[in-house]
Amino acid sequence: MDIILLGPPGAGKGTQAQRLEQRHGMQQLSTGDMLRGAVKAGTPIGLKAKAVMDRGELVSDEIVSELIDAELTAMGADTGAIFDGYPRTAAQARSLDEILARHGRSLDHVIELVVDEDALVERITGRFTCANCGAGYHDTFKQPAQSGVCDECGATEFKRRPDDNEETVRTRMVEYRAKTAPILPIYEERGIVNRVDGMASIDEVTEAIDAVLG
Ligand code: AMP
Fold first, then answer.
1. Where is this region: NMP (predicted)?
2. Which structural domain, as residue segments, surrounds residue 110?
3. What is the CATH number of the domain that holds 191?
4. 112 vs 11, 118, 119, 187, CA distance in Å?
Protein backbone atom coordinates (compact mmCIF):
# COMPACT_ATOMS: atom_id res chain seq x y z
CA MET A 1 0.00 0.00 0.00
CA ASP A 2 1.36 3.43 -0.96
CA ILE A 3 0.05 6.58 0.74
CA ILE A 4 0.69 10.32 0.87
CA LEU A 5 0.54 12.25 4.14
CA LEU A 6 -0.43 15.79 3.25
CA GLY A 7 -0.64 18.83 5.51
CA PRO A 8 1.15 22.06 6.39
CA PRO A 9 4.45 22.11 8.26
CA GLY A 10 3.92 20.98 11.85
CA ALA A 11 0.75 19.01 11.07
CA GLY A 12 2.38 15.84 12.38
CA LYS A 13 3.26 14.09 9.12
CA GLY A 14 6.70 12.96 10.28
CA THR A 15 5.45 11.72 13.66
CA GLN A 16 2.65 9.71 12.07
CA ALA A 17 4.91 8.37 9.31
CA GLN A 18 7.29 6.97 11.94
CA ARG A 19 4.39 5.29 13.71
CA LEU A 20 3.11 3.78 10.46
CA GLU A 21 6.58 2.38 9.84
CA GLN A 22 6.53 0.65 13.22
CA ARG A 23 2.94 -0.57 13.08
CA HIS A 24 2.63 -1.60 9.45
CA GLY A 25 6.19 -2.23 8.25
CA MET A 26 5.85 0.56 5.73
CA GLN A 27 8.70 2.91 4.81
CA GLN A 28 8.71 6.68 5.31
CA LEU A 29 9.98 8.62 2.31
CA SER A 30 10.56 12.15 3.58
CA THR A 31 12.11 14.50 1.05
CA GLY A 32 12.85 16.91 3.92
CA ASP A 33 14.89 14.21 5.70
CA MET A 34 16.65 13.28 2.44
CA LEU A 35 17.54 16.92 1.80
CA ARG A 36 18.76 17.44 5.38
CA GLY A 37 20.91 14.34 4.92
CA ALA A 38 22.33 15.79 1.71
CA VAL A 39 23.05 19.12 3.44
CA LYS A 40 24.83 17.32 6.29
CA ALA A 41 26.87 15.19 3.88
CA GLY A 42 27.77 18.27 1.81
CA THR A 43 26.69 16.67 -1.49
CA PRO A 44 26.10 18.88 -4.57
CA ILE A 45 22.33 18.62 -3.98
CA GLY A 46 22.81 19.58 -0.34
CA LEU A 47 24.94 22.58 -1.19
CA LYS A 48 22.29 23.77 -3.64
CA ALA A 49 19.36 23.14 -1.31
CA LYS A 50 20.66 24.59 1.96
CA ALA A 51 19.99 28.29 1.36
CA VAL A 52 16.55 27.57 -0.13
CA MET A 53 15.59 25.44 2.88
CA ASP A 54 16.90 28.03 5.34
CA ARG A 55 14.53 30.56 3.74
CA GLY A 56 11.60 28.13 3.91
CA GLU A 57 11.15 28.08 0.16
CA LEU A 58 10.79 25.01 -2.04
CA VAL A 59 13.71 23.15 -3.59
CA SER A 60 13.38 22.42 -7.32
CA ASP A 61 10.86 19.80 -8.45
CA GLU A 62 13.53 17.90 -10.40
CA ILE A 63 15.77 17.44 -7.38
CA VAL A 64 13.11 16.07 -5.05
CA SER A 65 11.53 13.83 -7.71
CA GLU A 66 14.95 12.31 -8.45
CA LEU A 67 15.46 11.66 -4.75
CA ILE A 68 12.10 9.88 -4.50
CA ASP A 69 12.75 7.84 -7.65
CA ALA A 70 16.10 6.66 -6.28
CA GLU A 71 14.58 5.69 -2.91
CA LEU A 72 11.79 3.71 -4.56
CA THR A 73 14.36 1.91 -6.70
CA ALA A 74 16.25 0.92 -3.55
CA MET A 75 13.08 -0.18 -1.75
CA GLY A 76 11.49 -3.63 -1.95
CA ALA A 77 8.42 -3.84 -4.19
CA ASP A 78 6.43 -5.36 -1.30
CA THR A 79 7.10 -2.54 1.16
CA GLY A 80 4.45 0.18 1.29
CA ALA A 81 5.65 3.76 0.87
CA ILE A 82 4.57 6.70 3.04
CA PHE A 83 5.25 9.90 1.13
CA ASP A 84 5.92 12.61 3.72
CA GLY A 85 6.45 16.14 2.43
CA TYR A 86 6.22 15.01 -1.20
CA PRO A 87 4.57 15.89 -3.55
CA ARG A 88 4.44 19.61 -2.73
CA THR A 89 3.59 21.06 -6.17
CA ALA A 90 1.41 20.07 -9.14
CA ALA A 91 4.56 19.23 -11.13
CA GLN A 92 5.72 16.89 -8.35
CA ALA A 93 2.28 15.24 -8.25
CA ARG A 94 2.58 14.52 -11.99
CA SER A 95 6.12 13.20 -11.54
CA LEU A 96 4.98 10.94 -8.71
CA ASP A 97 2.34 9.38 -10.98
CA GLU A 98 4.98 8.67 -13.61
CA ILE A 99 7.51 7.36 -11.10
CA LEU A 100 4.98 5.06 -9.43
CA ALA A 101 3.80 3.71 -12.80
CA ARG A 102 7.42 2.98 -13.75
CA HIS A 103 7.86 1.04 -10.51
CA GLY A 104 4.58 -0.84 -11.03
CA ARG A 105 3.00 0.88 -8.00
CA SER A 106 -0.03 3.10 -7.42
CA LEU A 107 -1.44 5.37 -4.74
CA ASP A 108 -4.01 3.93 -2.36
CA HIS A 109 -4.73 6.86 -0.05
CA VAL A 110 -3.96 10.54 0.42
CA ILE A 111 -4.40 11.43 4.07
CA GLU A 112 -4.86 15.13 4.71
CA LEU A 113 -4.00 16.19 8.25
CA VAL A 114 -6.34 19.10 8.92
CA VAL A 115 -4.92 21.58 11.44
CA ASP A 116 -5.50 25.02 12.84
CA GLU A 117 -2.68 27.10 11.34
CA ASP A 118 -2.43 29.41 14.35
CA ALA A 119 -1.37 26.47 16.51
CA LEU A 120 1.34 25.40 14.10
CA VAL A 121 3.87 28.11 14.82
CA GLU A 122 3.92 27.12 18.50
CA ARG A 123 4.10 23.44 17.59
CA ILE A 124 7.04 23.96 15.25
CA THR A 125 9.14 26.52 17.08
CA GLY A 126 9.04 24.39 20.27
CA ARG A 127 10.09 21.09 18.74
CA PHE A 128 13.46 19.39 19.16
CA THR A 129 14.84 15.90 18.69
CA CYS A 130 17.39 13.61 20.29
CA ALA A 131 20.65 14.04 18.38
CA ASN A 132 21.37 10.33 18.80
CA CYS A 133 18.12 8.45 18.04
CA GLY A 134 15.87 11.15 16.56
CA ALA A 135 13.09 10.81 19.17
CA GLY A 136 10.87 13.89 19.04
CA TYR A 137 10.20 16.30 21.92
CA HIS A 138 8.57 19.69 22.52
CA ASP A 139 9.27 22.56 24.91
CA THR A 140 5.61 22.77 25.98
CA PHE A 141 3.93 19.52 25.00
CA LYS A 142 6.51 16.77 25.50
CA GLN A 143 9.62 17.32 27.60
CA PRO A 144 11.80 14.26 28.33
CA ALA A 145 10.78 12.62 31.65
CA GLN A 146 14.18 13.54 33.07
CA SER A 147 15.27 16.98 31.91
CA GLY A 148 18.06 16.84 29.34
CA VAL A 149 18.01 13.03 28.96
CA CYS A 150 16.37 11.24 26.02
CA ASP A 151 13.56 8.89 27.18
CA GLU A 152 14.34 6.44 24.39
CA CYS A 153 18.12 6.07 24.40
CA GLY A 154 19.50 8.08 27.36
CA ALA A 155 21.52 10.45 25.18
CA THR A 156 21.97 14.02 26.43
CA GLU A 157 22.43 15.90 23.15
CA PHE A 158 19.40 17.40 21.41
CA LYS A 159 19.01 19.41 18.22
CA ARG A 160 16.61 21.81 16.56
CA ARG A 161 16.05 22.29 12.83
CA PRO A 162 17.50 25.57 11.58
CA ASP A 163 14.28 26.25 9.62
CA ASP A 164 12.03 25.86 12.70
CA ASN A 165 12.16 29.58 13.55
CA GLU A 166 9.06 31.78 13.30
CA GLU A 167 10.07 33.77 10.22
CA THR A 168 10.93 30.67 8.17
CA VAL A 169 7.83 28.84 9.40
CA ARG A 170 5.65 31.70 8.07
CA THR A 171 7.31 31.37 4.64
CA ARG A 172 6.83 27.58 4.71
CA MET A 173 3.12 28.10 5.42
CA VAL A 174 2.77 30.56 2.54
CA GLU A 175 4.47 28.01 0.26
CA TYR A 176 2.08 25.30 1.49
CA ARG A 177 -1.00 27.41 0.86
CA ALA A 178 0.15 28.65 -2.55
CA LYS A 179 1.67 25.49 -4.03
CA THR A 180 0.81 22.37 -2.03
CA ALA A 181 -2.84 22.76 -0.92
CA PRO A 182 -3.88 23.25 -4.59
CA ILE A 183 -2.79 19.69 -5.46
CA LEU A 184 -5.53 18.18 -3.26
CA PRO A 185 -8.22 18.38 -5.99
CA ILE A 186 -6.07 16.14 -8.23
CA TYR A 187 -6.49 13.35 -5.68
CA GLU A 188 -10.05 14.31 -4.72
CA GLU A 189 -11.08 13.62 -8.31
CA ARG A 190 -9.71 10.12 -7.89
CA GLY A 191 -11.70 9.64 -4.68
CA ILE A 192 -8.66 8.73 -2.57
CA VAL A 193 -8.52 11.69 -0.14
CA ASN A 194 -9.30 11.08 3.54
CA ARG A 195 -9.36 13.93 6.05
CA VAL A 196 -8.06 13.37 9.56
CA ASP A 197 -8.23 15.87 12.44
CA GLY A 198 -4.58 16.73 13.01
CA MET A 199 -5.40 18.73 16.15
CA ALA A 200 -6.37 15.56 18.06
CA SER A 201 -3.79 13.81 20.26
CA ILE A 202 -0.96 11.92 18.54
CA ASP A 203 -2.57 8.57 19.50
CA GLU A 204 -5.99 9.64 18.23
CA VAL A 205 -4.51 10.75 14.91
CA THR A 206 -2.74 7.38 14.57
CA GLU A 207 -6.04 5.58 15.26
CA ALA A 208 -7.85 7.67 12.68
CA ILE A 209 -5.17 6.91 10.07
CA ASP A 210 -5.28 3.19 10.93
CA ALA A 211 -9.04 3.27 10.39
CA VAL A 212 -8.48 4.68 6.88
CA LEU A 213 -5.86 2.04 6.05
CA GLY A 214 -8.27 -0.66 7.26
P1 AMP B 1 10.08 19.27 5.61
O2 AMP B 1 11.04 18.48 6.44
O3 AMP B 1 9.14 18.41 4.82
O4 AMP B 1 9.37 20.34 6.40
O5 AMP B 1 10.98 20.05 4.53
C6 AMP B 1 11.96 20.98 4.91
C7 AMP B 1 12.36 21.83 3.71
O8 AMP B 1 12.93 21.00 2.71
C9 AMP B 1 11.21 22.56 3.03
O10 AMP B 1 10.90 23.81 3.65
C11 AMP B 1 11.78 22.75 1.62
O12 AMP B 1 12.74 23.78 1.58
C13 AMP B 1 12.51 21.44 1.41
N14 AMP B 1 11.64 20.39 0.84
C15 AMP B 1 11.26 19.22 1.44
N16 AMP B 1 10.47 18.49 0.63
C17 AMP B 1 10.33 19.23 -0.50
C18 AMP B 1 9.59 19.02 -1.71
N19 AMP B 1 8.84 17.92 -1.91
N20 AMP B 1 9.67 19.99 -2.66
C21 AMP B 1 10.43 21.09 -2.49
N22 AMP B 1 11.12 21.36 -1.38
C23 AMP B 1 11.07 20.44 -0.38
1. 30-59
2. 2-116+178-213
3. 3.40.50.300
4. 9, 17, 17, 11
